Amino acid sequence: MTKDTKIVARPGLNGRPVEDWLRALAANKVPSKAVHHVLDAVITNPELASYASTSEMAGASGVNVATVTRSAQSFGFSGWPEWRQEIRARYLGLLSAPELAVVHEASSTQAPFDATIGKHIEHLAAMKRAIDRSVILDFAKAISSAKRRLIVASGSFAAVGRTLAHHAGVAGYRCEVLDDTVVLTNALADLTDRDVLIPITFWRLYNSSIAAAREAKRRGAPVYLISDQLVSPIAELADRILVVPSEGASFFPSIVPSLSIVESVCAQLVKLDPERSAKAIAAAEKQWQEFDLLHFNSPKFQP
Q1: Phi and psi of 241, rounded to 5°?
Q2: Which of 3.40.50.10490, 3.40.50.1000, 3.50.50.60, 1.10.940.10 would CATH assign to domain 133-272?
Q3: For 50-86, what is each residue's pLDDT tens digit?
Q4: Per the confidence metrics, is the pTM higher than 0.85?
Q5: Boundaries of CATH 1.10.10.10 in the chain?
Q6: How far apart are CA 196 and CA 109, in angstroms?
Q7: Where are the alpha helices (DSSP H) in the chain?
């Protein structure tokens, strides 16, 4: 997207909340004049900043590319792409679903299929470059060592939570998916520091996920978060965070990046204790056969 691309959004939404967060980043710092130029450019046009390449942001700020990178690093990010992801997530989080569709319509002339696949490829390529593999390992270790594994996920991302629970369960690590507020509340009643809470929440954060993370911290249980923001009310409560993009090509959020993440966590989980997982997978296979679940070995369909 170029800086001349028109963005249509609800008046006032893309102003104060994002601006307040950006100004808070610099509250306890004394940025150089060049860094201040970059910050001002982001504050003035968060829509552009949420899409812009490093060179486009440099042009909008009147500085060079290296200064944009240094600016991001001075505010605690690894570089401009990570800072841009935060800006993008916050900007989109202020939009309703219809407004989000308008944003995408204004910035793309592709057919829906091409735009969707292109967005997924873009996200997966960025994740391959940026994801810290040690955090994947930390997530797997947290799941393997916990007594109880509570996954909090709602809406379309409940599918991601159920995938994590299914894969981890087959590998020998039973999980609970809490996608109902009453079930979630009951599950938290006996949470201990031997358990782990895994919220999966993107775009517009659910209050139930934040409340669950807050209660987990109060009870001493670690919180391992999968989200699209590194800095948010729920991120502040997390012990570890996997930052995963969730923007789709329309008003539907994309679950492909988060599915890829949970699949990689589960693959890492198997590597931690191959013998345990092999036994669990063999036991599941035996159970599938005993329940006659699979067509190819069902006596009902034998010649």
Answers
A1: -135, 135
A2: 3.40.50.10490
A3: 778 899 999 999 999 999 999 999 988 888 988 887 8
A4: no
A5: 16-107
A6: 44
A7: 16-25, 33-44, 46-49, 54-61, 65-74, 80-93, 97-107, 112-130, 133-145, 158-170, 181-188, 207-218, 256-272, 274-290
